[in-house]
């Protein structure tokens, strides 16, 4: 079971899957108490120094990170200040008022903010402009928006909105999907398995560790009528695990975050 689950989880997004059932199914993951990260057992005598440390060697010290400047250089990762400025520039007031996030509140749902690639014409510059690529999802229009921000000039250089394009969901979207599933009648199997595993009622996503992946509806095969809008709509499936506990199989359940509904595959 240990090898099966690890193999499954490593390949799940590529299409590998455990046998599915009509309701949520718990799968316990058990590791030997004396196994390390590689599965090997520590056979050193009691009191022997750890490998790589001689007798009397001082313990390792974690040093605090150095002070972070307002602006990075070259291909340095975006600083906290650059991340904030990039998101603010990419979301003008009109967009913040009109767009909606995954919970329906004003403002788009943030996805990724990353350092943009340098342009070929800037390859020889000693200090080329720093650009950020900001992406988010607008649930008011089901639009995937990507904006290129020049952090050196504080200007938006390009904005592109696509419909029917579904990037991987954020953690916040996966949590909201779990919240909708728990509250839905189709979440009865999840609630039942959680109670069986913990002895407590599941009333919200807090006790769960969830990871979401996109479901594109007909692009992935036959989709039930309730899921026909997936693709244009933002739909996700979930890997669900009780924190410090077993996995609960919820992959046959699809949460349409745009319509805030739940449906079952098959």
From TrEMBL:
InterPro entries: Cu_amine_oxidase_N-reg. Residues 38-113 are annotated as: Disordered. The keyword Ion transport does not apply. It comes from the Bacteria. SUPFAM superfamilies: Amine oxidase N-terminal region. Keywords: Signal. Residues 1-27 form the signal peptide. Residues 70-90 have a biased composition (Basic and acidic residues). Gene3D superfamilies: 3.10.450.40. This is Tat pathway signal sequence domain protein. The lineage of its organism: Bacteria, Bacillati, Actinomycetota, Actinomycetes, Kitasatosporales.
